[in-house]
Amino acid sequence: MPQMQIRSAGPGSTAPLGPADSRPQADRLEKAQATLGLRSVFSDLLRQAGQEGWQSAPKALRETGSGAHSETVTAVDAVASWDRWLGAHADRYSFTTSGSPSVRPDKGLEDLRQDYGRILQGAQAAGAYAQPQAYLKTLSQEDLRTVQQVHARADAIDPAQLSHEGALNLLLPPDAMVDSDRDGVTEVGGTKVVLFPSSSTPPEVCAAWDAATANLSMEEVWVRQWQMGSGPQTQANLRFDSQGRVVDIINPGDPGWVNPFSDPSYTYKDFANEQLTLLDKFKGLMPEAQVKRDENFWRSFRNALSAERPPAGAT
Description:
Blueprint: E1 3-8, H1 22-48, E2 62-63, E3 69-70, H2 75-88, H3 109-125, H4 132-138, H5 141-150, H6 164-170, E4 186-188, E5 191-196, H7 203-213, H8 218-236, E6 238-240, E7 246-249, H9 268-282, H10 288-304
Parallel strand pairs: 1-5
Antiparallel strand pairs: 2-3, 4-5, 6-7
Helix pairs in contact: 1-2, 2-3, 3-5, 7-10, 9-10
């Protein structure tokens, strides 16, 4: 069975950042902009191949030789966006063999940039975004090690054992991965991860998320991402006995698994209100500073949600 992890998905868009130390905030803005550009380019590549990309990603317009704009994204665009993203997120990677089982001996950041860029070029030329498993099967063991390192996979990649989504996401840089089957989890290689925002998170929710997290530390952002991604899914997949006691939790891929985000009636405002209700109920058991911090976040997020996705069939 695929492993399950919780992972940060990075920013939903490029909302302005609040005042703080200029260099950390500048770095954070650079990461956000590189991530948005990456998602735009690779979402367009996926759409050109008949796949779904990120709902919140704007179309990636590129200059043509005549100075006009083209909506057709090429392998050159893909590699350029990968280069920019890696430059902004180089701190995600370790190049010491003691740091990660996916590290390639005697290979550094520039090797990773060039080698994965070459793989991305080949993927576009081979139509790999429609047939990802077939393309992965043509790669050498060294190329598969490169893909393994890009995605920090502990286990060697065996293309024959991968699902379509698991294979597809290996050919997308980490912050561009998609939940192509819309089951609420994103499969990369043989591992399933919970992302927030995910590729199916509505644009207005991503914008509200950016507004609510703009002035938070990255440590707190990660905590809120975990709450937003795993909280609703855990609640939806708990099973109780007749006495109201939890007796089981359904895991992704198991019979009975429910993706709450796919319910047309689901709203993030309701989830924020539920968190505020729980805080009010249990605030006597929590440090006052934590209660205030949590209340501020959930109120900020709720208030930023000026519009939600309408229920199916609504006008």
